[in-house]
Design goal:
By secondary structure, the protein is of the alpha+beta class. The chain has two helices and six strands; from the N terminus they run E-E-E-E-H-E-E-H. It is 23% helix and 29% strand. A four-stranded mixed beta sheet has the order 3-2-1-5, covered by helices on one side.
Protein backbone atom coordinates (compact mmCIF):
# COMPACT_ATOMS: atom_id res chain seq x y z
CA UNK A 1 0.00 0.00 0.00
CA UNK A 2 1.18 3.58 -0.67
CA UNK A 3 1.05 6.46 1.82
CA UNK A 4 1.48 10.22 2.23
CA UNK A 5 2.30 12.13 5.43
CA UNK A 6 1.20 15.59 6.50
CA UNK A 7 3.22 17.44 9.16
CA UNK A 8 1.87 20.58 10.86
CA UNK A 9 4.41 22.61 12.84
CA UNK A 10 2.23 24.46 15.34
CA UNK A 11 2.87 26.99 18.07
CA UNK A 12 2.83 24.43 20.88
CA UNK A 13 2.97 21.04 19.14
CA UNK A 14 3.74 19.20 15.93
CA UNK A 15 0.94 17.08 14.49
CA UNK A 16 1.70 14.28 12.02
CA UNK A 17 -0.89 12.30 10.06
CA UNK A 18 -0.33 9.27 7.84
CA UNK A 19 -2.82 8.97 4.97
CA UNK A 20 -3.48 6.28 2.42
CA UNK A 21 -3.72 7.39 -1.21
CA UNK A 22 -7.51 7.72 -0.92
CA UNK A 23 -7.11 10.34 1.82
CA UNK A 24 -8.06 8.10 4.74
CA UNK A 25 -6.27 8.84 8.01
CA UNK A 26 -4.27 5.77 9.01
CA UNK A 27 -2.21 7.03 11.98
CA UNK A 28 -1.84 10.23 14.00
CA UNK A 29 0.77 11.67 16.38
CA UNK A 30 0.80 14.89 18.40
CA UNK A 31 4.06 15.89 20.08
CA UNK A 32 3.90 19.00 22.30
CA UNK A 33 6.65 21.44 23.20
CA UNK A 34 6.63 24.53 25.42
CA UNK A 35 6.06 28.09 24.32
CA UNK A 36 8.65 30.08 26.26
CA UNK A 37 7.24 33.22 27.81
CA UNK A 38 10.07 34.28 30.13
CA UNK A 39 8.98 37.92 30.05
CA UNK A 40 5.85 39.89 29.15
CA UNK A 41 5.00 39.80 25.43
CA UNK A 42 7.63 37.08 24.79
CA UNK A 43 6.69 34.00 22.75
CA UNK A 44 9.58 31.74 21.73
CA UNK A 45 10.13 28.08 20.85
CA UNK A 46 13.24 25.93 20.91
CA UNK A 47 14.18 24.76 17.37
CA UNK A 48 15.77 21.56 18.73
CA UNK A 49 12.53 20.67 20.54
CA UNK A 50 10.52 21.27 17.36
CA UNK A 51 12.92 19.11 15.33
CA UNK A 52 12.66 16.33 17.92
CA UNK A 53 8.85 16.53 17.82
CA UNK A 54 8.90 16.20 14.02
CA UNK A 55 11.23 13.18 14.07
CA UNK A 56 9.24 11.52 16.86
CA UNK A 57 5.94 12.16 15.07
CA UNK A 58 7.19 10.78 11.77
CA UNK A 59 8.62 7.72 13.50
CA UNK A 60 5.39 7.14 15.43
CA UNK A 61 3.03 7.25 12.44
CA UNK A 62 5.34 5.11 10.30
CA UNK A 63 5.41 2.51 13.10
CA UNK A 64 1.64 2.67 13.77
CA UNK A 65 0.90 2.36 10.06
CA UNK A 66 3.43 -0.42 9.59
CA UNK A 67 4.78 1.42 6.54
CA UNK A 68 7.22 -0.68 4.56
CA UNK A 69 10.26 0.46 2.59
CA UNK A 70 9.15 2.18 -0.63
CA UNK A 71 5.50 2.68 0.41
CA UNK A 72 5.87 6.31 1.52
CA UNK A 73 5.31 8.49 -1.56
CA UNK A 74 5.52 11.97 -0.07
CA UNK A 75 5.69 14.22 2.98
CA UNK A 76 4.12 17.67 3.17
CA UNK A 77 4.94 20.30 5.80
CA UNK A 78 2.86 23.27 6.92
CA UNK A 79 3.71 26.01 9.35
CA UNK A 80 1.33 28.90 9.80
CA UNK A 81 2.55 32.42 10.38
CA UNK A 82 6.00 33.93 10.28
CA UNK A 83 8.81 33.27 12.73
CA UNK A 84 12.46 34.23 13.07
CA UNK A 85 15.57 32.26 14.03
CA UNK A 86 18.94 34.02 13.96
CA UNK A 87 21.58 31.70 12.48
CA UNK A 88 25.39 31.71 12.48
CA UNK A 89 27.57 31.33 9.39
CA UNK A 90 27.34 27.52 9.72
CA UNK A 91 23.51 27.57 9.90
CA UNK A 92 23.36 26.81 13.61
CA UNK A 93 20.65 28.63 15.58
CA UNK A 94 21.83 31.56 17.68
CA UNK A 95 18.40 32.14 19.22
CA UNK A 96 15.21 30.30 19.95
CA UNK A 97 12.41 30.74 17.43
CA UNK A 98 10.84 34.17 17.85
CA UNK A 99 7.23 33.33 16.96
CA UNK A 100 4.41 35.28 15.37
CA UNK A 101 2.93 35.74 18.87
CA UNK A 102 5.97 37.61 20.23
CA UNK A 103 5.03 41.26 20.85
CA UNK A 104 8.23 42.63 22.40
CA UNK A 105 8.86 44.93 19.43
CA UNK A 106 5.43 46.60 19.52
CA UNK A 107 6.64 49.65 21.49
CA UNK A 108 9.44 50.21 18.94
CA UNK A 109 7.00 49.91 16.06
CA UNK A 110 4.78 52.53 17.69
CA UNK A 111 7.77 54.85 18.17
CA UNK A 112 8.70 54.51 14.49
CA UNK A 113 5.12 55.28 13.46
CA UNK A 114 4.93 58.26 15.81
CA UNK A 115 8.18 59.88 14.66
CA UNK A 116 7.41 59.34 10.95
CA UNK A 117 10.24 56.86 10.27
CA UNK A 118 7.88 53.90 10.10
CA UNK A 119 5.51 55.18 7.42
Amino acid sequence: MDYMIGVDLGTTSTKVVLFDMKGNSIAYANNPYPLYQDSPDMAEEDPAEIFEAVINGLTEVMRKGNVKNGELKGVSFSSAMHSLILMDKDNHPLTRVITWADNRSSKYAEELKDNGLGQ
